[in-house]
Amino acid sequence: MEKVTDVVMVRGEAELFERTAHLFEAATEISCAARDLHTWSVAHPTAPEREQSVRGMTVRKIYLPGVLFDPALAEHLRFMTTHGARIRITEREVNETILLDRRIAIVAGDRVGGVRGYTVISSPELVQGIRSLFEAAWHGATDLESYKARFTELGAREILEQLASGCKDEAAARALGVGLRTYRRRVAELMEVLGASSRFQAGARAREAGLL
């Protein structure tokens, strides 16, 4: 562990948990931004502890769309929202960060040798700057239920089935009862949601997520 004034560097989730468990236990407000729930697994209690961990707290979380495609992760999101957490989805890259009571920031770093580094920050000036970035991401993100409604509106599963069947766009559009331009627009939007750069990749990611 290396410490420079009020910035502490830790290596791996085990050391992060050892150094910050008391901060999570004492926190009454948690703001989190992550690609998925795996980055901050240290902050996600096991099932018997979840209800107690959320009760009486202000919890805001931002995730990328991929969390909606993993049944276990989606179930965790449903549980959190049921117990008062506010969750939003963003299609933009996020700075993977946790803010505790607006006075502590934990920033995830890169993996080196298979171990991820984390920076724990208590400097008021640095925390304020990180908090400003989080607030901008929060206001630019979409409420979970609204995002899920949009995903359903796209007819995502039906489009993925058409892509997987190898149908040409014209035939797929007819099968779904939409115009060709509408179909192609929805395919493009779905690819964006999946973070895919090609239709083949979209299909692969959908299969990995259990959508096909």
UniProtKB/TrEMBL annotation:
Keyword hit for Cell cycle: no
Origin: domain of life: Bacteria
SUPFAM superfamilies attached to this UniProt entry: C-terminal effector domain of the bipartite response regulators
SMART domains: HTH_LUXR
Domain (HTH luxR-type): residue spans on this chain: 151-206
InterPro entries: Sig_transdc_resp-reg_C-effctor, TrmB-like, Tscrpt_reg_LuxR_C, WH-like_DNA-bd_sf
Keyword annotations of the record: DNA-binding
GO molecular function terms listed in the Swiss-Prot or TrEMBL record: DNA binding
UniProt KW Transmembrane keyword: no
Record protein name field: DNA-binding response regulator
